[in-house]
Amino acid sequence: MIAARDQWNRIVTKAKSDDDFDRTAALARALAYVELALNAAGYERAANGGIGFRLKAVLAGSSSEIRDRVARAIEARNAAVHQNRVPPNRECLAHVGTLRDVWRALRRKFVTHDHAASIARQCLENRHITTVLLYGSLGRNSKEPADIDLLLLDDGELSSFLVGYGRTGLIAIDLVLDALKLATDSYRAAVASGWLDITLLNGRLFGNDRVYVRSVAAGHRDQLFFLNVANSIESFNPETGTWNGPKPQIFGRYNALRTQIDSEGLLSLRRRGRSEG
Predict the structure, then answer these.
(1) What's the pLDDT band for 273 if we cut at 50, 70, 90?
(2) What CATH number labels 113-264?
(3) Pairing mode, strands 234-235 and 196-202
(4) In this predicted model, what pLDDT tens digit does every residue of 189-227 receive, in sequence order?
(5) Partners of 196 in the β-ladder
(6) Any residues with CB less than 8 A from the CB of 171 and at least 6 apart, and which?
(7) What residue spans define the domains of the chain?
(8) How high is the mean pLDDT of the chain?
(9) DSSP structural state of residue 131
(10) DSSP 135-147
């Protein structure tokens, strides 16, 4: 799955192109990502209205200037796609920027601690899930969090069934959503938008079985992932509905190791998560 930042960077590159077809693609993709974001944020499609109708609720409290800019961006997309009237580079780039701002506004509605807690509650309704952990930009309380990153620990049932024993515990997100009864249009769109990322690991083996931990780390795109998140990970407390629950001891050990490695200057461990889109 391509990160949101990379998706938008590709769109911006096409918007700057001298090729009419590239700029048309930039406008078309930008609006498509906004429509996907509307789905993720829970703005349902209306039978008698297009995306402009759906955006009215989103832009209700915005200034007339912002509403006009969004309307012009949609008109420019439609003119380029249906009439081959493609705006020049600078104008195309401005329209893409407007649509990206709308996408970011929708993301702010989805990526919240309350929403993450709601998802965590749903996950814990599955009797095999023992712990829900939050990490990433939302876990660090970033000013503009990029997504909801959840790490689920189970009793071995779901992780083993979905990936097979001995394989990495990082399983396909669509299988996770199905297993946790989160396979709604909204959550699928959130995953596609890069706003929701769920990883499921065997809680009995992780931190206790070196072969399993090595397998998980080797299968991750960032083999230092668990060290990188150890100092900011939060655990969901279902009794309070907040992220102040007890953390697995393994992350305390990882955090101590991370601090030592960082202080020795042996590796440059990431202090920040993925860049925002």
Answers:
(1) very low
(2) 3.30.460
(3) unpaired
(4) 999 899 998 888 999 999 899 998 888 888 777 778 888
(5) 148
(6) 159, 162, 163, 199, 200
(7) 4-110, 113-264
(8) 88
(9) E
(10) EHHHHTT-SS---
Q: Are 159 and 172 in contact (CB under 8 A)?
A: no
- Whether the predicted pLDDT of 270 surpasses 90: no
Helix (H) or strand (E) holding 200: strand 196-202
Determine the pLDDT at residue 223: 79
Rounded to whole angstroms, the Cα distance separating 145 from 63 reads 24
Whole-angstrom distance, CA of residue 262 vs CA of residue 264: 5
Beta-carbon contacts of 211 under 8 Å, excluding residues fewer than 6 positions away, are: none
Amino acid at 167: R
Element (H, E) at 43: none
Biggest CA pair distance of the chain? 62
CA atoms of 204 and 232, how far apart (whole Å): 22
